[in-house]
User: Fold this.
Amino acid sequence: MPSSTQTARTPLARQIAEDLRRRIVAGEFSPGSRLPSEAELCEHYRVSRVTVRTAAKSLESQGLVDIRHGSGMFVVDFGGQIRSGLQELRSITETIEELGLNAKVRRVSLTRRQADENERAHLDVNDDDEIVAVHREILADDEVVAVSIDAIPARLVPASEDASLGNGSVFAVLDRIGLTPVRALAEIHAVRGSDVPIAEDHVADELLILLDQVHYDRSGDPVAYSKTYFVEGRFQFVILRTR
Amino acid sequence: MPSSTQTARTPLARQIAEDLRRRIVAGEFSPGSRLPSEAELCEHYRVSRVTVRTAAKSLESQGLVDIRHGSGMFVVDFGGQIRSGLQELRSITETIEELGLNAKVRRVSLTRRQADENERAHLDVNDDDEIVAVHREILADDEVVAVSIDAIPARLVPASEDASLGNGSVFAVLDRIGLTPVRALAEIHAVRGSDVPIAEDHVADELLILLDQVHYDRSGDPVAYSKTYFVEGRFQFVILRTR
DNA sequence: AACACAGCAGTTGTCCTACAACTCGCGGCT
DNA sequence: AGCCGCGAGTTGTAGGACAACTGCTGTGTT
Assistant:
Protein backbone atom coordinates (compact mmCIF):
# COMPACT_ATOMS: atom_id res chain seq x y z
CA MET A 1 0.00 0.00 0.00
CA PRO A 2 1.32 3.45 -0.85
CA SER A 3 2.12 5.60 2.12
CA SER A 4 -0.57 8.14 1.44
CA THR A 5 0.11 10.12 4.63
CA GLN A 6 -2.83 12.45 5.13
CA THR A 7 -0.71 15.59 5.21
CA ALA A 8 -0.81 15.52 9.04
CA ARG A 9 -0.24 19.23 8.97
CA THR A 10 1.54 20.65 11.96
CA PRO A 11 -0.48 23.40 13.62
CA LEU A 12 0.96 26.88 13.26
CA ALA A 13 1.20 27.42 16.99
CA ARG A 14 3.28 24.30 17.31
CA GLN A 15 5.62 25.30 14.51
CA ILE A 16 6.19 28.63 16.17
CA ALA A 17 6.72 27.06 19.57
CA GLU A 18 9.32 24.75 18.09
CA ASP A 19 11.06 27.58 16.29
CA LEU A 20 11.16 29.72 19.42
CA ARG A 21 12.45 26.77 21.38
CA ARG A 22 15.20 26.25 18.84
CA ARG A 23 16.16 29.90 18.96
CA ILE A 24 16.22 29.92 22.75
CA VAL A 25 18.31 26.78 23.01
CA ALA A 26 20.60 28.11 20.29
CA GLY A 27 21.23 31.11 22.49
CA GLU A 28 19.64 33.75 20.32
CA PHE A 29 17.90 34.98 23.46
CA SER A 30 20.10 34.91 26.51
CA PRO A 31 18.85 33.48 29.80
CA GLY A 32 16.95 36.01 31.85
CA SER A 33 16.40 38.34 28.93
CA ARG A 34 13.04 39.43 27.63
CA LEU A 35 11.71 38.00 24.41
CA PRO A 36 10.02 40.19 21.84
CA SER A 37 6.50 41.18 22.83
CA GLU A 38 3.55 39.23 21.50
CA ALA A 39 2.81 42.02 19.06
CA GLU A 40 6.35 41.87 17.68
CA LEU A 41 6.22 38.10 17.39
CA CYS A 42 2.95 38.39 15.48
CA GLU A 43 4.69 40.73 13.09
CA HIS A 44 7.69 38.44 12.74
CA TYR A 45 5.78 35.20 12.15
CA ARG A 46 2.87 36.82 10.32
CA VAL A 47 0.29 35.16 12.53
CA SER A 48 -2.41 36.31 14.88
CA ARG A 49 -1.86 37.01 18.52
CA VAL A 50 -3.90 33.94 19.45
CA THR A 51 -1.36 31.75 17.72
CA VAL A 52 1.63 33.46 19.28
CA ARG A 53 0.05 33.20 22.70
CA THR A 54 -0.67 29.50 22.23
CA ALA A 55 2.95 28.92 21.36
CA ALA A 56 4.15 31.05 24.25
CA LYS A 57 1.94 29.21 26.71
CA SER A 58 3.32 25.95 25.46
CA LEU A 59 6.87 27.09 26.07
CA GLU A 60 5.89 28.32 29.50
CA SER A 61 4.52 24.95 30.52
CA GLN A 62 7.69 23.37 29.22
CA GLY A 63 9.49 25.63 31.65
CA LEU A 64 11.56 27.42 29.06
CA VAL A 65 10.09 30.85 29.51
CA ASP A 66 8.27 32.77 32.19
CA ILE A 67 5.34 34.97 31.16
CA ARG A 68 4.67 37.89 33.47
CA HIS A 69 1.44 39.81 33.23
CA GLY A 70 2.08 43.38 32.22
CA SER A 71 5.77 42.85 31.93
CA GLY A 72 6.71 40.41 29.22
CA MET A 73 8.02 36.97 28.42
CA PHE A 74 11.43 36.06 29.83
CA VAL A 75 13.84 33.24 29.13
CA VAL A 76 14.12 31.17 32.27
CA ASP A 77 17.61 31.33 33.69
CA PHE A 78 19.03 28.14 35.11
CA GLY A 79 22.60 29.29 35.26
CA GLY A 80 23.45 27.82 31.90
CA GLN A 81 22.41 24.29 32.72
CA ILE A 82 20.82 21.99 30.22
CA ARG A 83 17.27 22.79 29.42
CA SER A 84 16.27 19.65 27.67
CA GLY A 85 15.01 17.30 30.31
CA LEU A 86 13.37 13.96 30.77
CA GLN A 87 9.90 15.48 30.85
CA GLU A 88 10.22 16.02 27.14
CA LEU A 89 9.81 12.99 24.97
CA ARG A 90 12.70 12.83 22.57
CA SER A 91 14.95 10.11 21.29
CA ILE A 92 18.07 9.44 23.28
CA THR A 93 20.33 10.03 20.33
CA GLU A 94 18.70 13.37 19.69
CA THR A 95 19.29 14.37 23.29
CA ILE A 96 22.90 13.28 23.18
CA GLU A 97 23.55 15.29 20.07
CA GLU A 98 21.90 18.36 21.51
CA LEU A 99 24.47 18.12 24.27
CA GLY A 100 27.14 18.46 21.61
CA LEU A 101 28.26 14.84 21.68
CA ASN A 102 28.54 12.32 18.92
CA ALA A 103 25.72 9.78 19.20
CA LYS A 104 25.92 6.28 17.81
CA VAL A 105 23.77 3.22 18.13
CA ARG A 106 24.92 -0.37 17.80
CA ARG A 107 22.35 -3.08 17.33
CA VAL A 108 23.24 -6.16 19.30
CA SER A 109 20.34 -8.29 18.18
CA LEU A 110 16.87 -8.30 16.71
CA THR A 111 14.45 -11.13 17.24
CA ARG A 112 10.81 -11.86 16.68
CA ARG A 113 9.48 -13.84 19.58
CA GLN A 114 6.57 -14.32 21.96
CA ALA A 115 6.01 -11.47 24.36
CA ASP A 116 6.81 -12.28 27.96
CA GLU A 117 4.30 -11.58 30.68
CA ASN A 118 5.69 -8.18 31.50
CA GLU A 119 5.62 -7.08 27.91
CA ARG A 120 2.11 -8.37 27.42
CA ALA A 121 0.97 -6.35 30.40
CA HIS A 122 2.41 -3.12 29.05
CA LEU A 123 1.79 -3.51 25.36
CA ASP A 124 -1.67 -4.40 24.24
CA VAL A 125 -0.98 -7.83 22.75
CA ASN A 126 -2.57 -11.24 22.99
CA ASP A 127 -0.88 -14.28 24.38
CA ASP A 128 -0.04 -15.67 20.99
CA ASP A 129 1.05 -12.42 19.42
CA GLU A 130 4.66 -11.88 18.59
CA ILE A 131 6.82 -8.90 19.30
CA VAL A 132 9.94 -7.52 17.69
CA ALA A 133 12.64 -7.20 20.33
CA VAL A 134 15.62 -5.00 19.62
CA HIS A 135 18.67 -5.00 21.83
CA ARG A 136 20.89 -1.96 21.37
CA GLU A 137 23.82 -0.10 22.81
CA ILE A 138 23.84 3.68 22.80
CA LEU A 139 27.18 5.41 22.54
CA ALA A 140 28.13 9.00 23.20
CA ASP A 141 31.53 9.94 21.84
CA ASP A 142 32.25 6.23 21.31
CA GLU A 143 31.57 5.36 24.91
CA VAL A 144 28.68 3.12 25.91
CA VAL A 145 26.31 5.19 28.01
CA ALA A 146 23.26 2.97 27.87
CA VAL A 147 21.88 -0.37 26.77
CA SER A 148 18.29 -0.94 25.88
CA ILE A 149 15.67 -3.48 24.97
CA ASP A 150 12.78 -2.22 22.87
CA ALA A 151 9.71 -4.36 22.32
CA ILE A 152 7.26 -3.52 19.56
CA PRO A 153 4.17 -5.56 18.67
CA ALA A 154 5.11 -7.49 15.53
CA ARG A 155 1.85 -6.68 13.79
CA LEU A 156 2.90 -3.02 13.73
CA VAL A 157 6.23 -3.62 12.07
CA PRO A 158 6.44 -4.75 8.45
CA ALA A 159 9.19 -7.29 8.02
CA SER A 160 10.81 -4.97 5.52
CA GLU A 161 11.64 -2.58 8.31
CA ASP A 162 13.52 -5.15 10.34
CA ALA A 163 16.78 -4.22 8.70
CA SER A 164 16.47 -0.56 9.60
CA LEU A 165 15.25 -1.17 13.13
CA GLY A 166 17.95 -0.62 15.63
CA ASN A 167 20.60 0.85 13.43
CA GLY A 168 19.41 4.28 14.38
CA SER A 169 16.65 5.79 16.38
CA VAL A 170 13.64 3.58 16.96
CA PHE A 171 11.62 6.77 16.75
CA ALA A 172 12.58 7.24 13.14
CA VAL A 173 11.25 3.82 12.20
CA LEU A 174 8.04 4.21 14.15
CA ASP A 175 7.62 7.58 12.49
CA ARG A 176 7.98 6.06 9.06
CA ILE A 177 5.27 3.49 9.66
CA GLY A 178 2.95 6.17 11.03
CA LEU A 179 3.19 5.34 14.71
CA THR A 180 4.90 8.38 16.17
CA PRO A 181 4.88 8.15 19.94
CA VAL A 182 3.59 11.35 21.52
CA ARG A 183 3.57 10.30 25.12
CA ALA A 184 5.50 7.98 27.34
CA LEU A 185 5.03 6.88 30.90
CA ALA A 186 8.40 6.13 32.47
CA GLU A 187 9.35 4.53 35.74
CA ILE A 188 12.77 5.20 37.21
CA HIS A 189 14.75 2.63 39.13
CA ALA A 190 18.25 2.23 40.43
CA VAL A 191 19.83 -1.13 39.65
CA ARG A 192 23.15 -2.89 40.03
CA GLY A 193 25.08 -3.81 36.93
CA SER A 194 25.15 -7.43 38.03
CA ASP A 195 21.35 -7.48 37.94
CA VAL A 196 21.07 -6.32 34.36
CA PRO A 197 20.54 -9.32 32.11
CA ILE A 198 21.71 -7.67 28.95
CA ALA A 199 24.75 -5.84 30.28
CA GLU A 200 28.37 -6.59 29.60
CA ASP A 201 30.65 -7.92 32.29
CA HIS A 202 32.52 -4.71 32.80
CA VAL A 203 29.50 -2.95 34.26
CA ALA A 204 28.82 -5.59 36.87
CA ASP A 205 30.16 -3.30 39.58
CA GLU A 206 28.54 -0.15 38.23
CA LEU A 207 25.27 1.37 39.19
CA LEU A 208 22.69 2.02 36.52
CA ILE A 209 19.51 3.97 36.17
CA LEU A 210 16.71 2.03 34.58
CA LEU A 211 14.12 3.85 32.54
CA ASP A 212 11.19 1.50 32.22
CA GLN A 213 8.78 3.07 29.82
CA VAL A 214 5.78 2.59 27.61
CA HIS A 215 5.31 4.75 24.53
CA TYR A 216 1.87 5.69 23.28
CA ASP A 217 0.81 7.03 19.92
CA ARG A 218 -1.67 9.81 19.32
CA SER A 219 -4.70 7.60 19.67
CA GLY A 220 -3.50 6.30 23.00
CA ASP A 221 -2.39 2.86 21.90
CA PRO A 222 0.90 1.52 23.24
CA VAL A 223 3.42 1.19 20.44
CA ALA A 224 6.61 0.30 22.27
CA TYR A 225 7.78 -0.93 25.63
CA SER A 226 11.40 -0.38 26.46
CA LYS A 227 13.88 -0.81 29.24
CA THR A 228 16.89 1.42 29.01
CA TYR A 229 19.79 1.06 31.40
CA PHE A 230 21.97 4.14 31.76
CA VAL A 231 25.36 3.87 33.35
CA GLU A 232 25.34 6.15 36.39
CA GLY A 233 27.55 9.16 35.90
CA ARG A 234 27.93 8.91 32.15
CA PHE A 235 24.66 10.55 31.36
CA GLN A 236 23.09 13.50 33.07
CA PHE A 237 19.44 13.10 33.91
CA VAL A 238 17.61 16.32 34.37
CA ILE A 239 13.97 16.94 35.04
CA LEU A 240 12.38 20.31 34.93
CA ARG A 241 9.52 20.32 37.35
CA THR A 242 6.84 22.95 37.13
CA ARG A 243 3.82 23.88 39.13
CA MET B 1 -16.98 25.84 39.70
CA PRO B 2 -17.37 27.17 43.22
CA SER B 3 -18.28 30.84 43.27
CA SER B 4 -15.69 31.56 45.93
CA THR B 5 -13.86 34.20 43.86
CA GLN B 6 -10.42 32.67 44.25
CA THR B 7 -8.55 35.95 44.67
CA ALA B 8 -8.73 37.79 41.40
CA ARG B 9 -4.94 37.57 41.32
CA THR B 10 -5.04 34.07 39.91
CA PRO B 11 -5.75 34.23 36.18
CA LEU B 12 -9.09 32.80 35.16
CA ALA B 13 -7.53 30.30 32.79
CA ARG B 14 -5.46 28.89 35.60
CA GLN B 15 -8.41 28.56 37.93
CA ILE B 16 -10.31 26.67 35.28
CA ALA B 17 -7.36 24.44 34.48
CA GLU B 18 -7.03 23.56 38.15
CA ASP B 19 -10.72 22.87 38.46
CA LEU B 20 -10.74 20.65 35.40
CA ARG B 21 -7.67 18.85 36.68
CA ARG B 22 -9.37 18.23 39.99
CA ARG B 23 -12.48 16.90 38.26
CA ILE B 24 -10.45 14.61 36.03
CA VAL B 25 -8.36 13.19 38.87
CA ALA B 26 -11.53 12.81 40.94
CA GLY B 27 -12.87 10.59 38.18
CA GLU B 28 -15.72 12.79 37.05
CA PHE B 29 -14.53 12.16 33.51
CA SER B 30 -13.40 8.61 32.94
CA PRO B 31 -10.13 7.84 31.13
CA GLY B 32 -10.53 7.82 27.38
CA SER B 33 -13.82 9.66 27.44
CA ARG B 34 -14.48 12.97 25.75
CA LEU B 35 -14.74 16.12 27.81
CA PRO B 36 -17.43 18.71 27.10
CA SER B 37 -16.71 20.79 24.02
CA GLU B 38 -15.08 24.18 24.37
CA ALA B 39 -18.42 25.84 23.76
CA GLU B 40 -20.02 23.87 26.57
CA LEU B 41 -17.16 24.64 28.93
CA CYS B 42 -17.54 28.33 28.09
CA GLU B 43 -21.16 28.06 29.07
CA HIS B 44 -20.35 26.21 32.27
CA TYR B 45 -17.58 28.48 33.51
CA ARG B 46 -19.05 31.66 32.04
CA VAL B 47 -15.85 32.63 30.30
CA SER B 48 -14.77 33.17 26.74
CA ARG B 49 -13.50 30.44 24.48
CA VAL B 50 -10.00 31.89 24.59
CA THR B 51 -9.86 31.32 28.34
CA VAL B 52 -11.19 27.79 28.08
CA ARG B 53 -8.69 27.04 25.35
CA THR B 54 -5.81 28.39 27.42
CA ALA B 55 -6.82 26.13 30.29
CA ALA B 56 -7.26 23.16 27.96
CA LYS B 57 -3.86 23.69 26.38
CA SER B 58 -2.32 23.79 29.82
CA LEU B 59 -3.87 20.44 30.72
CA GLU B 60 -2.71 19.03 27.42
CA SER B 61 0.89 19.95 28.08
CA GLN B 62 0.57 18.38 31.52
CA GLY B 63 -0.37 15.20 29.71
CA LEU B 64 -3.79 14.88 31.27
CA VAL B 65 -5.85 15.35 28.16
CA ASP B 66 -5.43 14.97 24.45
CA ILE B 67 -6.92 17.61 22.18
CA ARG B 68 -7.80 16.39 18.69
CA HIS B 69 -8.56 18.86 15.97
CA GLY B 70 -12.12 18.51 14.78
CA SER B 71 -12.87 15.79 17.24
CA GLY B 72 -12.66 16.96 20.83
CA MET B 73 -10.73 16.83 24.06
CA PHE B 74 -10.17 13.41 25.60
CA VAL B 75 -8.95 12.26 28.98
CA VAL B 76 -5.67 10.45 28.50
CA ASP B 77 -5.92 6.80 29.40
CA PHE B 78 -2.93 5.15 31.04
CA GLY B 79 -4.71 2.05 32.14
CA GLY B 80 -5.39 3.43 35.57
CA GLN B 81 -1.80 4.21 36.43
CA ILE B 82 -0.77 7.20 38.44
CA ARG B 83 -1.04 10.48 36.67
CA SER B 84 0.89 12.63 39.03
CA GLY B 85 4.54 12.33 38.17
CA LEU B 86 7.89 13.87 38.84
CA GLN B 87 7.42 16.47 36.13
CA GLU B 88 4.97 18.19 38.42
CA LEU B 89 6.42 20.15 41.27
CA ARG B 90 4.74 19.10 44.46
CA SER B 91 5.89 18.33 47.93
CA ILE B 92 6.86 14.76 48.68
CA THR B 93 4.37 14.41 51.48
CA GLU B 94 1.60 15.62 49.21
CA THR B 95 2.57 13.03 46.61
CA ILE B 96 2.67 10.26 49.19
CA GLU B 97 -0.77 11.14 50.45
CA GLU B 98 -2.19 11.26 46.95
CA LEU B 99 -1.06 7.66 46.67
CA GLY B 100 -3.28 6.87 49.61
CA LEU B 101 -0.50 6.43 52.15
CA ASN B 102 0.06 8.10 55.46
CA ALA B 103 2.88 10.63 55.20
CA LYS B 104 5.00 11.76 58.12
CA VAL B 105 8.15 13.79 58.44
CA ARG B 106 10.71 13.53 61.20
CA ARG B 107 13.24 16.29 61.62
CA VAL B 108 16.63 14.94 62.46
CA SER B 109 18.41 18.24 62.81
CA LEU B 110 18.36 21.92 61.93
CA THR B 111 21.47 24.02 61.81
CA ARG B 112 22.54 27.42 60.64
CA ARG B 113 25.96 27.22 59.10
CA GLN B 114 28.19 28.37 56.26
CA ALA B 115 27.18 27.10 52.85
CA ASP B 116 29.57 24.58 51.37
CA GLU B 117 30.93 25.02 47.88
CA ASN B 118 28.24 22.94 46.26
CA GLU B 119 25.46 24.83 47.98
CA ARG B 120 27.01 28.16 47.10
CA ALA B 121 27.10 27.16 43.47
CA HIS B 122 23.42 26.25 43.38
CA LEU B 123 21.97 28.85 45.66
CA ASP B 124 22.84 32.44 45.03
CA VAL B 125 24.75 33.18 48.22
CA ASN B 126 28.03 34.87 49.04
CA ASP B 127 30.93 33.14 50.67
CA ASP B 128 30.16 34.52 54.09
CA ASP B 129 26.40 34.01 53.92
CA GLU B 130 24.80 31.44 56.10
CA ILE B 131 22.23 28.83 55.20
CA VAL B 132 19.64 26.97 57.15
CA ALA B 133 20.19 23.25 56.73
CA VAL B 134 17.39 20.87 57.58
CA HIS B 135 17.91 17.14 57.77
CA ARG B 136 14.71 15.12 57.60
CA GLU B 137 13.33 11.64 57.22
CA ILE B 138 10.20 11.10 55.18
CA LEU B 139 7.95 8.24 56.16
CA ALA B 140 5.12 6.58 54.31
CA ASP B 141 2.95 4.36 56.47
CA ASP B 142 5.59 4.61 59.22
CA GLU B 143 8.34 3.31 56.99
CA VAL B 144 11.29 5.49 56.03
CA VAL B 145 11.16 5.96 52.27
CA ALA B 146 13.56 8.88 51.96
CA VAL B 147 16.02 11.09 53.75
CA SER B 148 16.75 14.63 52.72
CA ILE B 149 18.90 17.66 53.30
CA ASP B 150 17.36 21.00 52.45
CA ALA B 151 19.47 24.15 52.32
CA ILE B 152 17.83 27.57 52.36
CA PRO B 153 19.68 30.88 52.39
CA ALA B 154 19.47 32.12 55.96
CA ARG B 155 18.58 35.64 54.91
CA LEU B 156 15.29 34.31 53.55
CA VAL B 157 14.24 32.58 56.72
CA PRO B 158 13.25 34.56 59.79
CA ALA B 159 14.57 32.90 62.92
CA SER B 160 11.03 32.62 64.17
CA GLU B 161 10.31 30.04 61.48
CA ASP B 162 13.12 27.75 62.55
CA ALA B 163 10.84 25.85 64.86
CA SER B 164 8.32 25.08 62.13
CA LEU B 165 10.91 24.20 59.52
CA GLY B 166 11.22 20.52 59.04
CA ASN B 167 8.30 19.35 61.09
CA GLY B 168 6.20 19.31 57.98
CA SER B 169 6.55 20.28 54.39
CA VAL B 170 9.29 22.74 53.59
CA PHE B 171 6.96 24.06 50.93
CA ALA B 172 4.47 25.21 53.52
CA VAL B 173 7.10 27.30 55.29
CA LEU B 174 8.44 28.82 52.09
CA ASP B 175 4.89 29.60 51.13
CA ARG B 176 4.27 31.40 54.38
CA ILE B 177 7.27 33.67 53.94
CA GLY B 178 6.26 34.47 50.37
CA LEU B 179 8.80 32.34 48.54
CA THR B 180 6.70 29.72 46.84
CA PRO B 181 8.86 27.67 44.50
CA VAL B 182 7.30 27.41 41.07
CA ARG B 183 10.06 25.56 39.29
CA ALA B 184 12.72 23.08 40.17
CA LEU B 185 15.59 21.64 38.23
CA ALA B 186 16.32 18.13 39.39
CA GLU B 187 19.18 15.79 38.63
CA ILE B 188 18.70 12.07 39.10
CA HIS B 189 21.43 9.75 40.27
CA ALA B 190 21.73 6.22 41.48
CA VAL B 191 23.78 5.80 44.65
CA ARG B 192 24.76 3.11 47.11
CA GLY B 193 23.49 3.36 50.65
CA SER B 194 27.04 3.23 51.92
CA ASP B 195 27.82 6.39 49.98
CA VAL B 196 25.05 8.41 51.56
CA PRO B 197 26.49 10.53 54.36
CA ILE B 198 23.22 11.06 56.17
CA ALA B 199 21.77 7.58 55.92
CA GLU B 200 21.32 5.06 58.67
CA ASP B 201 23.37 1.92 58.82
CA HIS B 202 20.61 -0.38 57.76
CA VAL B 203 20.49 1.05 54.24
CA ALA B 204 24.20 0.53 53.60
CA ASP B 205 23.43 -2.36 51.29
CA GLU B 206 20.46 -0.74 49.63
CA LEU B 207 20.34 1.24 46.44
CA LEU B 208 18.95 4.72 46.49
CA ILE B 209 17.79 7.26 43.99
CA LEU B 210 19.15 10.72 44.60
CA LEU B 211 17.08 13.70 43.58
CA ASP B 212 19.46 16.63 43.53
CA GLN B 213 17.40 19.71 42.97
CA VAL B 214 17.25 23.46 43.08
CA HIS B 215 13.96 25.24 43.64
CA TYR B 216 13.25 28.63 42.12
CA ASP B 217 10.62 31.19 42.96
CA ARG B 218 8.56 33.16 40.49
CA SER B 219 11.21 35.76 39.87
CA GLY B 220 13.77 33.09 39.08
CA ASP B 221 15.78 33.29 42.27
CA PRO B 222 16.88 30.04 43.89
CA VAL B 223 15.16 29.56 47.22
CA ALA B 224 16.20 26.07 48.20
CA TYR B 225 18.73 23.40 47.32
CA SER B 226 17.98 19.90 48.40
CA LYS B 227 19.27 16.40 48.14
CA THR B 228 16.70 13.71 48.68
CA TYR B 229 17.65 10.05 48.84
CA PHE B 230 14.87 7.62 48.08
CA VAL B 231 15.23 3.97 48.96
CA GLU B 232 14.91 2.03 45.72
CA GLY B 233 11.70 0.04 45.57
CA ARG B 234 9.88 1.82 48.35
CA PHE B 235 8.76 4.70 46.24
CA GLN B 236 7.53 4.67 42.71
CA PHE B 237 9.03 7.26 40.44
CA VAL B 238 6.97 8.06 37.41
CA ILE B 239 7.53 10.62 34.73
CA LEU B 240 5.03 11.53 32.11
CA ARG B 241 6.93 12.56 29.03
CA THR B 242 5.23 14.51 26.30
CA ARG B 243 6.18 15.74 22.91
C1' DA C 1 17.68 66.29 48.65
C1' DA C 2 14.62 62.58 49.55
C1' DC C 3 10.35 60.54 49.25
C1' DA C 4 5.42 59.56 47.89
C1' DC C 5 2.38 59.21 44.33
C1' DA C 6 -0.28 59.97 40.13
C1' DG C 7 0.11 59.34 35.43
C1' DC C 8 1.56 57.04 31.26
C1' DA C 9 3.29 53.87 27.89
C1' DG C 10 3.99 49.12 27.16
C1' DT C 11 2.69 44.32 27.89
C1' DT C 12 -0.11 40.39 28.97
C1' DG C 13 -5.09 38.64 30.16
C1' DT C 14 -9.78 38.21 28.54
C1' DC C 15 -13.73 38.90 25.50
C1' DC C 16 -16.18 38.94 20.99
C1' DT C 17 -17.17 37.51 16.30
C1' DA C 18 -16.07 35.26 12.29
C1' DC C 19 -14.14 31.91 9.41
C1' DA C 20 -10.85 27.90 8.20
C1' DA C 21 -9.59 23.13 8.84
C1' DC C 22 -10.55 18.81 10.45
C1' DT C 23 -13.42 14.48 12.12
C1' DC C 24 -17.02 11.49 11.96
C1' DG C 25 -21.34 9.57 11.06
C1' DC C 26 -25.42 9.59 8.18
C1' DG C 27 -27.69 8.84 3.97
C1' DG C 28 -27.88 8.45 -0.90
C1' DC C 29 -25.78 6.45 -4.85
C1' DT C 30 -23.62 2.96 -7.62
C1' DA D 1 -22.42 -4.33 0.05
C1' DG D 2 -19.49 -0.77 -0.66
C1' DC D 3 -18.24 3.85 -2.00
C1' DC D 4 -18.81 8.72 -1.82
C1' DG D 5 -20.08 13.15 -0.50
C1' DC D 6 -22.36 16.10 2.45
C1' DG D 7 -23.19 18.36 6.76
C1' DA D 8 -23.17 18.98 11.69
C1' DG D 9 -19.99 19.33 15.33
C1' DT D 10 -15.44 20.50 16.98
C1' DT D 11 -10.92 22.56 17.29
C1' DG D 12 -7.49 26.01 14.95
C1' DT D 13 -6.61 30.79 13.49
C1' DA D 14 -7.71 35.68 12.54
C1' DG D 15 -8.45 40.52 13.94
C1' DG D 16 -10.03 44.04 16.89
C1' DA D 17 -11.16 45.76 21.36
C1' DC D 18 -10.78 46.59 26.16
C1' DA D 19 -9.25 45.24 31.07
C1' DA D 20 -5.53 44.39 34.30
C1' DC D 21 -1.01 44.69 35.47
C1' DT D 22 4.12 46.42 35.53
C1' DG D 23 7.76 49.57 35.52
C1' DC D 24 9.23 54.01 34.70
C1' DT D 25 8.93 58.94 34.70
C1' DG D 26 7.91 63.19 36.16
C1' DT D 27 5.67 65.97 39.54
C1' DG D 28 4.64 67.68 43.95
C1' DT D 29 5.39 67.56 48.78
C1' DT D 30 8.07 67.25 52.76
Q: What stands out?
A: The longest strand of chain A covers residues 103-114.
